[in-house]
Amino acid sequence: MVTKETTQTRNGNGYQTGRMLRTGEACRILCVHGNTLRRWSEQGMLNAYRIGPRGDRRFRLEDVNALLAEEIRFNSEDYRKVK
């Protein structure tokens, strides 16, 4: 279930409002384990925004979709090379 939560996060340019996903929601969209998503976040492959006193991660829907599109493009290029 994807929430309709919008969260204000602060980036270098000021406040930004957008659709934010919890870790589990982003994992389901990307078909990866939570540990993989957290590792990608730590490596800078996907921006994560920390919210609340526990520092929970949230991911912008636009960033998740961009990563998914990049992965699909990369895999389709590999598929063409095999043929």
Characterise this structure:
There is one protein chain. The protein contains 3 helices and 4 strands; from the N terminus they run ββααββα. It is α+β, with helices and mostly antiparallel strands and 83 residues long. The protein has a single domain (6-82), classed as Multidrug-efflux Transporter Regulator, Chain: A, Domain 2 (Orthogonal Bundle), CATH 1.10.1660. A hairpin with a 2-residue loop joins strand 1 (6-11) and strand 2 (14-21). The longest helix has 22 residues, at 61-82. The chain is elongated and about 45 Å long. Residues 1-9 have low confidence and may be disordered.
Enter the CATH topology name: Multidrug-efflux Transporter Regulator, Chain: A, Domain 2
Could you tell me the mean pLDDT? 80
Number of domains as seen in the coordinates: 1
Distance between the termini: 38 Å
Strand content: 25-35%
CATH architecture: Orthogonal Bundle
Largest sheet: 4 strands, antiparallel
Rg, nearest Å: 14 Å
CATH class: Mainly Alpha
Class computed from helices, strands and strand pairing: alpha+beta
The number of distinct β-strands equals: 4
Order of helices and strands: EEHHEEH
**Which residues sit in consecutive blocks of at least 5 with pLDDT less than 50?**
1-9
Q: What level of helicity do the residues show? A: 40-55%
Distinct helical segment count:
3
The strand order across the widest sheet is 1-2-4-3
